[in-house]
Amino acid sequence: MELSAKFLAQLLKGTVEGDENAVATEFAKIEHGKKGTLSFYANPKYESYVYTSEASILIVGKDFEPKEPVKATLVRVENAYSAIADLLKYVSEKKKKAKRHRSLRARWFLSTRFGKKVYLGAFSYVGRHTTVGDGTIIHEQVYIGDNCTVGKNCIFYPGVRIYPGMVIGDNVILHSGVTIGADGFGNAPRPDGSWEKIEHLGNVVIGNDVEIGANTTVDRAQMESTIIGNGVRIDNLCMIAHNVIIGDHTAMAAQTGIAGSTEIGKYCIFGGQVGIAGHLKIADHTTIMAQGGVIGNIRKEGQVLLGSPVIPARQYMKAYALFKQAAE
User: What 3-state DSSP class applies to 85?
Assistant: First the structure.
């Protein structure tokens, strides 16, 4: 896509400083900028690259005052981070397939209901009595079982697997390899030490504006529902067990695992490889730093926690300083 400085200023409500006809056809980090690329500057530690970058267009904040000559045409905006996020979203929307298309190599049924402008790729399967909302994109090799409800403007990338009976809201993005609705890890010990499988008859309910990363799994409930709230962000390779509830706008990084029947509050942030035991409650606005292990309830809101088991991050850093000294 070709983007001119003049168009960018109009789109992002900014102003042009330099050649308004300068054109960029691709994005680049500011340190990798070359002719024909668009970059942005928002973090002061990258300022040196502003003066060496060969990018054609550079998005900067209105308050940026260059200390040396700048080769690029500047597009000044209120907030460079927000502007680049809005621009990436704009470009992404333009690239989406908007026209209605159902591949003859896909399979669906007379009882399947599609909204307007649904894209269904080759070798995908949409089950009986399943409803798919307007504008949803189902890429190639996606499986959606019977009796599912899928909202509007969703994107399911190749390899997504959605078991029967799942409920998915509007504007949900599921990346390749996501599995929604597998049985939870429920097994009862027999007297002889072997295991008896516990059947899972519930489902998964995913709210609106959720994004789930590649190869993440969300297990169906044993009874009732596993619930992913509105606006939740889940990274690649995460594990959400049966009957878990995740509150609105919580975000978790890769390899986070949440055991069964745990309730996560709203607006929580979990770093990579966080592990949370089952049947716990985590308060709203809790931040757990990378590799944190949670074995008990967290009732106080707004804490930043670290370690395994987790304790307040500042307390952990003091304890760690003493631990390092102990060997000496």
Answer: helix
CATH number of 3-95: 3.40.1390.10
Q: How far apart are alpha carbons 188 and 191 in whole angstroms?
A: 10
Residues of the chain with pLDDT under 50: none
Per-position DSSP letters for 282-313, written without gaps between them: E-TT-EE-TT-EE-S-B-STT-EEETTTTEEH
Give the integer Cα–Cα distance in Å for 129 and 119.
18
User: So which residues are the catalytic ones?
Assistant: 242
- Token pair listed for 207: 């709210």
Q: What are phi and psi of 154, to 5 degrees?
A: -85, 160
Show the 3-state SS of 26-53.
EECCHHHCCCCEEEECCCHHHHHHHHHC
User: 277-294: string of b/e by CB count within 10 Å (b at 16+)?
Assistant: beebebbebbbbbeebeb
140-152 confidence digits (pLDDT tens): 999 999 999 999 9
Q: Quick one: DSSP state of residue 161? A: E
Q: Residue 162: what are its φ and ψ, rounded to 5°?
A: -120, 115
| Domain boundaries defined on the chain | 3-95, 101-317
Q: pTM higher than 0.85 for the full model? A: no
User: Which CATH architecture fits 101-317?
Assistant: 3 Solenoid (2.160)
